[in-house]
């Protein structure tokens, strides 16, 4: 690995840094965006059951909001349970915007790495081409410098694509995952509002 880095020259270092950041972000998002952690199954039914048995209290809402992103959205509705249906929906929508923003955390950075990695690889390719042209002299070409320039060009291009492809795949996967979670949380929040206002039984 170290010999590859040496052959790729100094342009490989920004790509190595980008790869480390991308791997760290992918692992962090894989852990954070688990369905059981974002939209736990059965949470809405438990909330409705507890509300019917014990009503609403600050402790219950606090525990619910600390439970999960879905809990924060449902908790916003419960905080306004005595208000009109429209006010409850507005409170839920505001909480949903905040939760959605938090679920999308780091995705912009991952998308940026996916976009710029090929350009960083292209920059390394240009540096390698400069090395190749620099090896040409009136007395003949310098084979060592020529080989080094080719190594820089090829390694940086390949490494840039190696970073960009998985980063783009995971970025699109996480975006779709977050969009799905947001829709599901909206649906459950609407059901909560309708149940609390007597339009549904649960």
Descriptive keywords:
0% strand; 202 residues; mainly alpha; 82% helix
Give me the strand/helix succession.
HHHHHHHHH
Q: Give the helix level as a range of percent.
A: over 70%
* N/C terminus separation: 59 Å
Radius of gyration: 26 Å
- Poorly predicted tracts of residues: none
**How would you sum up the global shape?**
rod-shaped
Number of strands: 0
- Beta-strand proportion: under 5%
| Biggest β-sheet strands, sense, barrel | none
Taking all residues together, what is the mean pLDDT? Answer: 87
Count helical runs: 9
Q: Would you tell me the structural class of the helices and strands?
A: mainly alpha
Structure description:
The protein has nine helices and no strands. It has 202 residues and is mainly α. Helix 7 runs antiparallel to helix 9. 31% of the residues are buried. The model has no long low-confidence stretch (mean pLDDT 87).
Write the topology of this structure.
Layout (H helix, E strand, L loop, with lengths): L1 H7 L3 H21 L2 H4 L4 H12 L3 H10 L1 H11 L5 H19 L3 H28 L8 H54 L6
Write a concise synopsis of the structure shown.
The chain has nine helices and no strands. The chain has helices spanning 2-8, 12-32, 35-38, 43-54, 58-67, 69-79, 85-103, 107-134, 143-196.
């Amino acid at each position: 690995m170290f010999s590859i880095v040496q052959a790729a020259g100094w342009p490989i270092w920004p790509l190595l840094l980008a790869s480390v950041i991308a791997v760290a972000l992918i692992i962090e998002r894989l852990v954070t965006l688990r369905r059981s952690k974002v939209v736990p199954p059965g949470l809405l039914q438990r909330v409705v059951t507890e509300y019917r048995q014990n009503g609403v209290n600050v402790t219950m809402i606090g525990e619910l909001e600390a439970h999960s992103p879905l809990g924060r959205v449902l908790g916003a509705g419960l905080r306004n349970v005595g208000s009109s249906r429209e006010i409850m929906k507005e409170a839920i929508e505001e909480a949903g915007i905040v939760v959605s923003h938090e679920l999308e955390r780091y995705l912009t950075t991952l998308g940026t790495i996916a976009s710029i990695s090929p350009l960083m690889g292209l920059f390394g390719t240009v540096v390698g081409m400069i090395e190749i042209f620099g090896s040409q002299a009136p007395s003949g070409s310098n084979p060592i410098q020529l080989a080094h320039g080719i190594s820089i060009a090829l390694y940086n291009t390949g490494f840039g694509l190696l970073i960009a492809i998985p980063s783009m795949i995971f970025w699109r996967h996480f975006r779709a995952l977050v969009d799905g979670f947001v829709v599901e949380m909206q649906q459950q929040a609407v059901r909560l509002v309708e149940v609390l206002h007597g339009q549904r039984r649960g």
